Amino acid sequence: MPEAEFWELPINTGPIPEPDSEFDCIVVGGGPGGSAAASYLAIQGKKVLLVEKGVWPRDKICGDAVGGKSLSHVSALGVKARLESTPHFRVTGIVFSSPNGSEVTVPLPEEDVARLEAGYSLPRQQFDWLLFDRATELVIENGGSVMQGTTVTEVYSEGDKITGIQVGIGGKRGEKMNFYAPWTIGAGGDRCPVARKIVKEMAGQELIEKMHYCGGYREYWDGVKGCEGDSGNIEIHFVEGIIPGYFWLFPLGGGKVNVGSGLVFGLMDKKKKKLKALQADVIANHPAFKERFADAKMIKGTGKGWQLPFGSPRKGRKNQPRKAYASGALLIGDAASLVDPFSGEGVGNALVSGEIAARHVIENKGGQEYQDELWNALGPELSNSFKMQKMSQRKWLLNWFVKKASKKPVIQEMMTEMIASKEAQENLHSKWFLVKTLLF
User: Fold this and answer.
1) Judging by beta carbons within 10 Å of its beta carbon (0-12, 13-18, 19+), is residue 354 exposed, middle or buried?
2) 27-49 burial, b for 16+ CB within 10 Å, e for fewer?
3) Residue 71 parent element (H or E)
4) In b/e form, how buried is each residue of 409-418, taking b as 16+ CB within 10 angstroms?
5) Which of 27, 78, 91, 335 lies 20 to 30 Å (CA to CA) from residue 152?
């Protein structure tokens, strides 16, 4: 048997803390957002308890693309060089196609590509392992503790203030232990127990809002034509059968490809098939893909579904997209419903929110200040992406726009800028700008 790669090995998180121990902050969830928050806190000397339900090595269902927004945090936390030493696909552009088969390639900014800061595509098992391993090192160095295979069974509160957690070692039925802290950060994904406490129990809001939630389905394949090599384009296809969602091909290097589909929950009810069946039909029968998959093989056991809580703004609600704090607690990443509603990318926003939350804990600021800064940082981008998601539901508009873009370099340049710049995204919603760019 070949020797295991380091990201395929267990992570030693050391002894578990004593029951009823107190910390400066408890972080629930060891994915990218939680690992980043715990790392930033530990770097500033805070005593942190990092609690993770899974046990490494572990898979995380995702599209596996890591954008430029993520890489500044990867670098700041000291794992960028190690990430680049692992197999990965370096993203230099994005291919978009419309339902009628029109196609346009949007290159990522040349300066970002040259600095190796445009983006990567690699399995989340590798990416998450690196961040959690680094968080473990920093947390333990600064007097904290890290626990894997540990399920949060209760979130404690006194009045309206969250004060600590109860955990089950090895799962809900395992040995119960309590831990306490003046701050708790919820980073446990779309069903995070801290989010359930804040959003559902305390604020009376719904965790799952069908028009702000997406179903995703992913498979790994070998040998898909056009996905060879270790650098190039990722692909997003708006195809018949999955519209108003999309079908993606994200190469991972070495001939391996993440193949998936996503569709808003509230629109999925109109489909007679589940995403898995819709994707199988595209692969087997769509004229643009059946030849590309003719000699390819799906890697057994990799077909899995998951849910993405969008950061799209809710009508008539303050604290967009939904409440992400309570007294003594902050939510980040998927637990705060921050997935981009157009691209489906969530890692970058998880890392951004993790850094903001850690800073607010360090400075002991109020939760409303955190919510305001979070929305100021991500709100314009998430709002624009929501508008783009709405536009993508109109087939005629997609067909017209992509065909026009394929023939006009100025539109391709505009799309490159929009991917890289929040300010440029605003132009997409200026009627005069669109008329001037698209028609003349």
Assistant:
1) buried
2) bbbbbbbbbbbbbbbbbeebbbb
3) helix 68-76
4) eebbebbbeb
5) 78
Rounded CA separation 96/128 (Å):
28
Rounded-to-integer distance, Cα 215 and Cα 200, Å: 21
> How would you write the pLDDT of the chain (440 residues) with one tens digit per residue?
567 788 889 999 999 999 999 999 999 999 999 999 999 999 999 999 999 999 998 888 888 887 777 888 888 999 988 888 888 888 888 888 888 888 888 877 666 555 545 578 888 889 999 999 999 999 999 999 999 999 999 999 999 999 999 999 987 777 899 999 999 999 999 899 999 999 999 988 888 888 888 889 999 999 999 999 999 998 999 988 787 788 999 999 999 999 999 988 877 767 767 889 999 999 999 999 999 999 999 999 999 998 889 988 887 776 678 899 999 999 999 999 998 888 788 888 999 999 999 999 999 998 899 999 999 999 888 888 888 788 778 888 888 877 877 777 766 665 565 454 444 444 444 544 444 444 44
CB 263 within 8 A of CB 68: no
Alpha-carbon gap, residue 125 to 216, rounded angstroms: 18
CA 73 to chain centre: 14
Contact 225, 241 (CB under 8 A): no
Residues 6+ apart with CB under 8 A from 76: none
Would you state the structure tokens that stand for residue 140, as one six-digit string? 């333990």
Tell me if 44 is assigned to some domain: yes
What gap in Å lies between CA 153 and CA 107, rounded to an integer? 46
Residue with tokens 């040995």: 175
Residue owning tokens 């197999």: 87
Is residue 338 in some structural domain?
Answer: yes
Residue 27 inside a domain? The answer is yes
User: Of all helices (H) and strands (E), which one includes residue 231?
Assistant: strand 231-237
Residue ranges of E strands in 109-193: 119-121, 145-147, 150-158, 161-169, 175-180, 184-186
Q: How many CA atoms lie within 13 A of 11 on its CB side?
A: 26
Domain of 35, in residue numbers:
6-63+126-208+311-387
User: 434 with 418: CB under 8 angstroms?
Assistant: no
**Where residue 363 sits, what CATH number does that domain have?**
3.50.50.60
In a domain, 296, yes or no: no
Residue with tokens 């903001």: 356
